[in-house]
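From the shared-data thread, chain only:
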Amino acid sequence: MNRMKTTLGIALITLVIGTSATTLKEPLKGKWESLFDGKTLTGWHTYKKAGQPVSANWKAEDGAIHFTGGRGGGDLLTDKEYGNFELEMEWKISEGGNSGIIYHVSEDPKYNATYFTGPEVQVLDDERHPDAKAGVSGNHKAGSLYDMLPPADLNAVKPAGQWNKVRIVIANSKGEHYLNGKKVVEYPTTGPEWDKMVAASKFKAWDGFGKYATGRIALQDHGNEVWFRNIRIREL
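Structure, as tokens:
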């Protein structure tokens, strides 16, 4: 009986250790965190103006963050920085409109804009904005890794005035963009392949572009009216 108990004990310990080892290999996911309370711009600030009132061009209304258009508003940034994350939101662009979602943004004084450091997920009216026809093979269209990779499905986007759901996953040196439930872009965020993509883009001479492993999330002021809602993130 004692030998049997000892054998069973060893087997149980082995099982527990094996289970723990398997669990430790799983990526740890944080809890979903809302980045917008639907009523205020608490938790956000204008690029390089933390602690100051947000420009009047940005408003919280009808459950959405609304950029009302015009120049001078500046990009809107999260107060918090993120490294590996999963981000979800809905966006709606005005007719002929252009905007973007930019991540890993640095506010170092030496940079003049969010896109000097952060890669951009394009937000665009593909039907009317001329930028949709610029670039190479559609890499300026909605959902693209701007000026680097086009969306795999050019029909995934909904037209201006309708809500589009975007999901952005940045983790383990890999990026993924999903648009309305479809994966449209996948890419490495570091290494030779990433360097090659940057070298073939407009960002090739920008020393800080794509070099930051953590940074802020930015909603772009491109001068056109745009809305964002149901914004949430979880760290991975």
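The domain at 30-235 is CATH 2.60.120.560 (Jelly Rolls).
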